[in-house]
Design goal:
Blueprint lengths: L4 H25 L7 H39 L1
Helix pairs in contact: 1-2
């Protein structure tokens, strides 16, 4: 698979969607009336995983975009 903007974006989007789906499933099964400390910690871990995945996606795409812009600028 070549390293290009579309491939990187598609793969990172897939990872973010997987993490987001898992977090949404946890939210849908969450009952605040019966939640334990372990349930709350699990929810927090899920949110941290989602935050990490979205930050990774944002930073990777920005870095790749900046690199491509620099390459085009150097070719001129």
């Amino acid at each position: 698979m070549p390293l290009n903007f579309t491939n990187v974006n598609d793969n990172l989007t897939s990872v973010v969607n997987t993490v987001e789906d898992a977090m949404l499933a946890d939210l849908n099964n969450f009952d605040p009336q019966t939640a334990s400390s372990a349930d709350l910690i699990s929810m927090q871990v899920g949110l941290q995983k989602w935050t990490l995945a979205t930050n990774l996606q944002t930073n990777a795409l920005k870095t790749l975009g900046d690199g491509l812009k620099n390459t085009v600028s150097n070719v001129r």
